[in-house]
Write a structure and sequence with these properties.
single chain; mainly alpha; Neutral Protease, domain 2; Serine Threonine Protein Phosphatase 5, Tetratricopeptide repeat; 44 helices; about 65% helix; globular
C-alpha cells in the first residue's frame, strides 16, 4: 500500500501567500530602495564571478571545507577577513569549518565579527543560530532567528539568491509551513535562480528524506551528483536514500563520500550506525574515536557511544556518554532519539520508547521522536496509544509518507477478522480467517506448548499475530514503509507480523513453518529480555523449524556446500554482521543457514542445556561472547571447532558424488555424444549427471533419462533444487505412461519438500484416479500448508472426506471451497447440504440445498434432498412435540400411547 502522494508534489503549485507576493504586485518602491537593490545585485555578481582572483580563492576555500581540510579552510578564511576582502561567504566558511571541528565558541565570535561588517547578512545569522545551539546558548539562537525574520520582513527584495532562499525554506520548515509551499516557493525557486549552487539540491533531498520519500530523495541526489560529482554531502544523501532498498549501492555511496572527505562526519556516523546494527561494536568504537579527533564534542558520536554501552551492559557508561552528548546543547532532542532508535532496531522497544519520550520531553515538536515512539508502541502491542501517537505525528506533518501509510493501514486492519483465545490474538483478512484461521491458532498453540516447555519459559502475556494478504501492508506494519521485500514474517516480541500465502502466490512458502519460526523468536526474545544477538535468535528459530518437521527449515545444498568449503563462513563472533550487508539474497539466506548450523553445533557439542544457560546469561546482560565462554568454550576455540564442524557437514553431503565442475560448454561443443562419453568417464559427477538427464529429456530418450535420474536420486536423495531428479523422473514416467511409478516418485519428493505445489497438484490427480482417499487427504492437507487459498486443495480434501465417510470434515472442506467461488457452485452447495444432512444440521442443509437450486433450478438430486430434509424436519418437529407433551402429561400423572394422537378432552357441562 502506497500513499497516494508518493512523493512531494513538485508539479502542483499553490498561489503565493500574501507574505511571499512578488514586489511587482505591490506599490512602487522608493528610488533609494531600487538603488540599494541594484548595488546589492552588482556586489553579488562581483563576488560570484569565477574568473577573478578573489573569486578563485573563495572557490578554493569552499573546496577545502568540502574536502574536510577544515584547519586550512579556517586559516584561508581568516587571512581573507584580515585582509578586508569583501564578501559574507568568507566568515560563513570560517564558521562552518569551526563548527565541524567543535570550535563552537570561536564560531560564535566569528559570527559576531561578520555581522558587524555585513549587518544585512541572513547567511551569517543562520550559521550563527546553529553555532549558538551547539554551544548551548538557546536565547542567542532564538535571537538570530528573530533577526533573520525581521530582515526578511523589512527587505524581502534583497534576499533572493539561491543560498538565502534555501535558508528561508529551512526556517519555514521549522515553523511548520506547508511542505509543498517550501518546495515550490523556496527550494525549486532557488534551483532556478542558480543552477550552479549545491544548496538547493541538498535541501530538496533532505526534505524528501524527512518525509520518508526515499525514491524522490534518491532521484534528487543522483541528479545532483551529475552536477557535483565530488560532493560528499550529495553522496551521503544518496546513501541515506538507498539504505533501506539497496544496501550495496548505499555502501558504495558512503565510500565515495569518504574518498572525497575522509573526515566527513555524517558519513562516518552512517557507518557507525550500520556497524552497531551488525553488532560490530569494536569497529564502531574505532570510527567514534576518529570522529572525536575531528570534533571532540560531536553529540551524535557520543550518542552512539551510549548505545554501545547499553548493548555491552555498561549502564554507567551509557549515562556518562549521554551526558557528554548533551553537555553543551542540553535541549538537543536528537541525542535521545538516536539512542532510542538504535535500541529499537535491536528489539529493545521498551527502552527505545523511553528514550523517545525523553526526546519529546525536551522538544514536544520533535517529529522524528514521535514517529519512532508510535512504531515502538505498536511493536510492543500497546495499540491504543500507538495509533493515537501515529495520528499526532500525522497532524504535525501531513506529508510524511510513513505516518500516512500507517493511518491507511489502520483502516485496513479495522476490516480484518479477529480470532482469539487465552494465548493469542490473531488478525487476518476475513475470508482467509474463515479458510485457515483455526489452523493458524492450533499451530501457534502447539508451538507455544512445544517450545515453551523445551526452553523452560512460562509465557503469561497474550501474543498478537497479524497476517497480511498484501505485501505492502505487511511492510508498512513491520518497517513503516511499503516496497520492502524479502521477509516472510517478523517478530517484535509480543507481536508477530507475517505475509499470508496470498502475497506469495508466485513464490510460495510454507506458512506453518514461517509461523513456527516466528513464535520461536517470541520464546528467545522473552527469555533474554530482547538481549539476544541476531545470529543466535535466527539460528535457534531455523534450528527449531527442522526439529518440528523434517521438511521445514533450511538444509545443506550444493551451493552452500561449496561456499563453506571455499572458506565462506562468517566467524561466529561476527555472524550477526552477515545479516547486515549481504552481497545478494542468497547470501542473506546463507546467513540464516549458517546461524542454524551454529546452533546445531552448540547443541551437539555442548547440549541444549548449555544453550539455555547462554540465553539466561544474555538476560542478565552478559555479552554473547562472554556467555559462550562461560557455558561452552572460548570464542576462539568455538570458531575453530565450528569451522571444522561446518566443513564436515559439507563433506558429508552426498559423499559418493563427484562435485567437481566441468566446463560443459566446451564438452557440449565437441560433438553430440561428447557429454555421454564424459559422463561415462566421470560416472558420479553431479553437474554432468544433471546436464545429461536434461539432454536426454530434451531428446525424448526416456529410458536413458530414467537410468540417469534414478542414479542421481540414489547418490543424493535429499536434493530439492529446481533441477531436482524427482520431478524430472516423474515427467519421464508420465511420458512413458507409468502412472504408478510417477506417483511413487512424486510422493518421495513431497516427503522431503515442504513447498512442492506442482508436485502435490499432480499427486491429487493420481491419487484420485487410484481412489486412494487416505493419501489424497494427506496430500490435500500438505498443499493447504503451502497455500490454503487453492480451491484444488479444499476440493480434494472434500472428496477424500466424503469417500472416507467423514461428513464433519467434508462440511469444513466444502464450506471453505464455497468461499473460494468454485466453478460449479450448485454442486458444491448440494454436496455441503448432503454432508450437513448426514450429521443432522437440517436448517443449514436446507439453506444450502436452496442455494444449489437457486444456481440450478432443475437440479433433481437437490430437489430429492430438499424433500428428505423437509420430511426430516417434520419428523423432528413431531417427535419434539410428542416428547414435550409426554413430559407434561407425565408430570400430571397421565399416561399416553405415543403411537396414537391424544383425543381432545371433553367439554365441561353447560350450567343451567
Amino acid at each position: 500500500m502506497h500513499a497516494p502522494q508518493a512523493r512531494l508534489p513538485r508539479c502542483e503549485r499553490r498561489e503565493s501567500p500574501d507574505h511571499l507576493d512578488s514586489f511587482h504586485t505591490r506599490r512602487p518602491l522608493p528610488v533609494w530602495q531600487y538603488l540599494g537593490w541594484l548595488m546589492a545585485s552588482l556586489i553579488t555578481l562581483w563576488c560570484a564571478f569565477p574568473r577573478t582572483a578573489a573569486g578563485a580563492e573563495l572557490t578554493e576555500c569552499r573546496d577545502m571545507l568540502i574536502r574536510g581540510e577544515y584547519q586550512a579552510c579556517i586559516r584561508a578564511a581568516h587571512e581573507a577577513i584580515t585582509a578586508k576582502r569583501y564578501g559574507e561567504t568568507w566568515p560563513v566558511l570560517k564558521v562552518k569549518a569551526q563548527m565541524a571541528t567543535g570550535q563552537y565558541e570561536a564560531a560564535l565570535q566569528a559570527v559576531e565579527a561578520g555581522i558587524e561588517r555585513y549587518s544585512w547578512s541572513v547567511r551569517l545569522r543562520w550559521v550563527g543560530h546553529e553555532a549558538a545551539l551547539k554551544s548551548g546558548q538557546l536565547k542567542l539562537a532564538e535571537t538570530r532567528l528573530t533577526e533573520v525574520a525581521d530582515l526578511v520582513k523589512r527587505f524581502s527584495w534583497r534576499y533572493t539568491d539561491a543560498e538565502e532562499l534555501v535558508i528561508l525554506g529551512e526556517i519555514d520548515e521549522m515553523n511548520g509551513v506547508d511542505a509543498r509551499e517550501v518546495l515550490s516557493n523556496r527550494y525549486e525557486k532557488a534551483q532556478q535562480r542558480n543552477r550552479l549552487s549545491r544548496e538547493p539540491w541538498l535541501a530538496i533531498g533532505e526534505l524528501a528524506l524527512d518525509k520518508n520519500d526515499a525514491a524522490f530523495a534518491a532521484e534528487t541526489f543522483t541528479a545532483g551528483l551529475k552536477q557535483f560529482p565530488d560532493d560528499p554531502d550529495m553522496h551521503f544523501g544518496l546513501a541515506r536514500a538507498l539504505a533501506a532498498s539497496n544496501s550495496p549501492d548505499a555502501t558504495a555511496a558512503i565510500t565515495a563520500s569518504l574518498m572525497v572527505n575522509a573526515q566527513h562526519v555524517p558519513s562516518l556516523l552512517f557507518q557507525i550506525d550500520r556497524l552497531i546494527s551488525s553488532e560490530e561494536y569494536d569497529k564502531a568504537l574505532e570510527l567514534i574515536s576518529q570522529i572525536r579527533r575531528v570534533n571532540p564534542h560531536q553529540p551524535e558520536a557520543w550518542a552512539y557511544l551510549a548505545v554501545i554501552a547499553h548493548f555491552t551492559n555498561d549502564p554507567r557508561g551509557e549515562a556518562a556518554a549521554r551526558d557528554h552528548a548533551l553537555d553543551r546543547w542540553s535541549n538537543n532532542p536528537h541525542v535521545d532519539h538516536i539512542i532510542g532508535r538504535k535500541l529499537s532496531q535491536h528489539y529493545r522497544f521498551k527502552e527505545g520508547a523511553a528514550y523517545q519520550r525523553r526526546a519529546l520531553s525536551i522538544d514536544p515538536k520533535f517529529i522524528p521522536a514521535r514517529r519512532q515512539l508510535a512504531q515502538d508502541l505498536l511493536r510492543l502491542g500497546d495499540e491504543d496509544e500507538g495509533w493515537q501517537v501515529v495520528q499526532q505525528a500525522h497532524e504535525q506533518d501531513a506529508y510524511n509518507v510513513q505516518t500516512f501509510n500507517l493511518l491507511e493501514l489502520q483502516d485496513e486492519l479495522s476490516g480484518f477478522a479477529t480470532l482469539e483465545d487465552e494465548s493469542f490474538l490473531l488478525r487476518m483478512e476475513r475470508i482467509e480467517a474463515q479458510l485457515y484461521g483455526d489452523e493458524v491458532l492450533e499451530l501457534l498453540n502447539r508451538a507455544k506448548t512445544t517450545l515453551s516447555e523445551k526452553y523452560g519459559l512460562t509465557l503469561k502475556d497474550r501474543v498478537t499475530v497479524e497476517v497480511f494478504p498484501e505485501q505492502d501492508d505487511f511492510a508498512v506494519r513491520t518497517f513503516g514503509m511499503p516496497a520492502v521485500s524479502g521477509y516472510l514474517g517478523v517478530c517484535f516480541g509480543k507481536v508477530i507480523t507475517a505475509n499470508s500465502p496470498a502475497s506469495r502466490r508466485e513464490n510460495p512458502s510454507n506458512w506453518e513453518a514461517v509461523l513456527w519460526h516466528e513464535f520461536c523468536h517470541v520464546v528467545t526474545l522473552e527469555l533474554t529480555r530482547n538481549r539476544i544477538p541476531r545470529w543466535l535468535s535466527e539460528g535457534i528459530s531455523v534450528y527449531e523449524e527442522v526439529q518440528a518437521h523434517a521438511t521445514w527449515g533450511q538444509k545443506m545444498d550444493p551451493r552452500s556446500r561449496q561456499h563453506i568449503l571455499d572458506g565462506g563462513l562468517t566467524p561466529l563472533g561476527q555472524l550477526s554482521s552477515a545479516f547486515m550487508n549481504p552481497k545478494s539474497g542468497w547470501h542473506m539466506n546463507f546467513a540464516y543457514f549458517e546461524s542454524a548450523m551454529a546452533v546445531d553445533f552448540l547443541v551437539q557439542n555442548y547440549g541444549l542445556e548449555s544453550v539455555r544457560n547462554v540465553l539466561s546469561d544474555l538476560k542478565a546482560g552478559l555479552p554473547i561472547n562472554v556467555a559462550l565462554d562461560r557455558r561452552c568454550a572460548a570464542i576462539a576455540k568455538l570458531e575453530l571447532d565450528f569451522d571444522e564442524f561446518a566443513k564436515q557437514q559439507a563433506n558429508s553431503l552426498a559423499p559418493e558424488l563427484d562435485w567437481s565442475k566441468p566446463e560443459l560448454d566446451v564438452i557440449l561443443a565437441e560433438d553430440n555424444d561428447a557429454l555421454e562419453v564424459w559422463v561415462r568417464e566421470h560416472p558420479n559427477n553431479f553437474v554432468g549427471l544433471i546436464a545429461l538427464s536434461t539432454k536426454q529429456i530434451e531428446e525424448a530418450e526416456w529410458e536413458a533419462a530414467e537410468t540417469t535420474l534414478k542414479k542421481l536420486i540414489s547418490l543424493y536423495r535429499g536434493y530439492e533444487g529446481g533441477d531436482n531428479a524427482y520431478e524430472k523422473l516423474a515427467h519421464v514416467y508420465r511420458e512413458l505412461n507409468r502412472p504408478s511409478d510417477e506417483r511413487q516418485t512424486l510422493e518421495q519428493f513431497a516427503s522431503i519438500s515442504s513447498e512442492a505445489v506442482a508436485t502435490n497438484h499432480r499427486l491429487i490427480e493420481l491419487q484420485t484416479a487410484d481412489a486412494d482417499w487416505t493419501e489424497l487427504a494427506r496430500t490435500a492437507r500438505r498443499l493447504q500448508g503451502v497455500d490454503p487459498l487453492l480451491r484444488s486443495a479444499h476440493a480434494a480434501a472434500a472428496v477424500a472426506a466424503e469417500r472416507l465417510d467423514n461428513p464433519a470434515s467434508a462440511v469444513t472442506s466444502l464450506t471453505r471451497l464455497i468461499l473460494l467461488e468454485p466453478d460449479d457452485p450448485a454442486e458444491a452447495h448440494y454436496r455441503l447440504a448432503h454432508a450437513l444432512y448426514s450429521i443432522g444440521r437440517l436448517s443449514e442443509a436446507k439453506r444450502h440445498t436452496l442455494q444449489a437450486l437457486e444456481e440450478a433450478p432443475r437440479y433433481r438430486d437437490a430437489h430429492r434432498l430438499l424433500l428428505q430434509i423437509v420430511q426430516a424436519e417434520t419428523d423432528t418437529e413431531v417427535a419434539a412435540a410428542t416428547q414435550v407433551l409426554s413430559a407434561i402429561n407425565t408430570s400430571v400423572g397421565i399416561q399416553l400411547d405415543p403411537s396414537r394422537r391424544p383425543e381432545a378432552p371433553p367439554l365441561p357441562d353447560t350450567p343451567e
